[in-house]
Write a structure and sequence with these properties.
325 residues; 2 domains; 11 helices; single chain; 10 strands
Length: 325
């Protein structure tokens, strides 16, 4: 047979075989353990949620879900490994608010948060809380803005590091309120809390989970939460919208990603199972105790959410000239 004549038919046959095998492959999934990459250290909220959901997902799928912590570079080391993993459903990645922020602040990012992943589901969102040292003579966002305008550059805001959602939330407030507050970055939230309670720095945006015990003990003073609605665990704390900034919304969030190119049937299976786990009464209660609000979206909804986060934070990072080489 003439090779030039046979080649198109051979290619067509190969495509037909691949299409025929795809549903069978998806039906056989999973037949070995699944790795779940967490781009942050053990003990953080992303790790806790990954282990809670992963344990239940392993029971449903009949294969263990093994958490693999790959911290470093603001989550980019683990995310890069997840993006470059085989697109077979056996390597998943925990996504956090750091993912779209990375696209804005890392000019040499080795992966694209929007193109190199197949979103599975947005699992939870968690409010950030604007807290102040108890000795600071303010009791609201309005009095904070007034104090900042009277003494530009004198007040300080802490963050868990350059390019984090904590820093960008502070920069967003600066932009919306037209105030000058000095940023003081730390290597994580814990050392920032120590200095904040000691009065070394003045304010901080942080995840509701680690600051709530300090709020309840009176060691930190809450001014506002950053979600559209009040946090169930801090019902007396107003939102930033209620404080006069309707366009201010910033959350810590946690989602599940697969590498781009993962078979749609596998993505749909994971989406179905994870969402069912999240919405079970037991898991809902456990998440609520952490201050997390269960979501459970479709893959398309999560994809659009990530795109919106990229668009939201890019101008904030540009205005503040935040760049990490």
């Amino acid at each position: 047979m003439n090779r030039s004549f046979a080649a198109p038919w051979l290619a067509l046959a190969a495509s037909a075989i691949a299409l025929a095998c795809a549903p069978a492959y998806a039906q056989d999934y999973p037949n070995r353990p699944i790795k779940l990459i967490v781009p942050f250290p053990a003990g953080q909220a992303s790790d806790s949620i990954a282990r809670m959901v992963g344990e239940q997902l392993g029971k449903v799928l009949g294969q263990p879900v093994v958490v693999d912590n790959k911290p470093g570079a603001g989550g980019n080391i683990g995310s890069d490994a997840g993006a470059k993993a085989p697109a077979d459903g056996y390597t998943l990645t925990m996504a956090t608010a750091a993912l779209p922020i990375s696209k804005a602040v890392y000019p040499k990012l080795p992966f694209d948060p929007e193109k190199d992943f197949a979103p599975v589901t947005l699992m939870t969102i968690t409010p950030l809380v604007l807290v102040a040292r108890p000795s600071l003579p303010i009791d609201s966002v309005a009095s904070l803005v007034e104090a900042a305008r009277k003494a530009p550059g004198k007040l300080t805001f802490a963050s868990s590091g350059i390019g984090t959602s904590h820093q960008l939330s502070g920069e967003l407030l600066k932009a919306l309120a037209n105030i000058d507050v000095l940023h003081v970055p730390y290597k994580g939230s814990a050392p920032a809390h120590i200095d904040l309670m000691a009065g070394t720095v003045d304010i901080m945006f942080d995840n509701i989970v680690p600051v709530t015990p300090h709020i309840r003990s009176g060691k930190l003073k809450p001014l506002a939460v950053t979600t559209k609605t009040r946090a169930p665990t801090l019902p007396d704390v107003p939102t930033m919208a209620e404080a006069g900034y309707p366009n201010f919304e910033a959350t810590a969030w946690f989602g599940l990603l697969a590498p781009a190119g993962t078979p749609p049937a596998i993505v749909e299976r994971l989406n179905k199972e994870v969402n069912a786990i999240l919405k079970s009464p037991e898991m809902n209660a456990r998440m609520a105790n952490m201050g997390a609000i269960v979501q459970g979206t479709t893959p398309d909804e999560f994809s659009r959410f990530i795109g919106a986060e990229v668009k939201k934070w890019a101008p904030v990072a540009a205005r503040a000239q935040i760049r990490v080489e």
